[in-house]
Amino acid sequence: MSILKRGLKGEPVRILQGRLGVPADGDFGPATEKALKAFQSAHGLSADGIAGPDTFAALGLNELVLLRQGSRGETVKKLQQALGLQADGAFGPATRKAVMEFQASKGLEADGMAGPDTLAALPAFASTFTAETVKKAELPPDLRVEIPEPLPPLSGADIAAAGAAASPAAPSEERPPKKSVWATVKGWFG
Question: Which end of the chain is more exposed for a tag (fewer CB within 10 A), N or C?
């Protein structure tokens, strides 16, 4: 997954803000961070002010979940179990490889990152990652995600430092690119 934290801007932040009940201006500032920490504390999550996969799940924002190498938490553990891996909750190189193999077997883009489309293809996630969730993850072409340069490093309870270097993605059948909430963000994580 990717994360949302202070300093980021764009449609995913606006979606998060709407769910937290703060002004949805798409700019993750102090008010968003404060509201997020309060939500996390009230729901037994690490109150670090960083929205990761477990926070998105608790908020019911499954369309924002993007698990990637370095992600950590219960959602990663569930993914690992679904793929038949040792479920330690830390998305490392072995999990990335298994995700890529699964994606290739399902005709999905084999990028090693598990977003709503990949999770929806796994029976363990079928009840929460539905076709509707995948559709909600798609963005109209006129919406952008603005990420400051350089991209903030992963940190916080939902994530861990990535281990080994990523291996190249397997070639996939050419098809028109999907525009999703994370479409412009995913390229930085390959």
Answer: C
- Say what angle helices 93-105 and 74-82 make with each other, to 10 degrees: 50
- The C-alpha atoms of residue 89 and residue 68 are separated, in whole angstroms, by 12
pTM summary value: 0.72
The Cα–Cα gap between 166 and 2 comes to 16
Alpha-carbon Rg for the chain, nearest whole angstrom, is 16
> CA torsion sign, 181 to 50 to 28 to 41?
positive
Residue whose pair of structure tokens reads 């079928």 in the numeric block: 126
How buried is residue 185: exposed, middle or buried, by Cβ count under 10 Å (0-12/13-18/19+)?
Answer: buried
Token code pair at residue 174? 């050419």
Buried b (16+ CB within 10 A) or exposed e, 118-154: bbbbbeebeebbeeebbebbebeeeeebebeeeeeeb
Given the structure tokens 């980021």, which residue do they identify?
8
Average pLDDT, the chain: 79
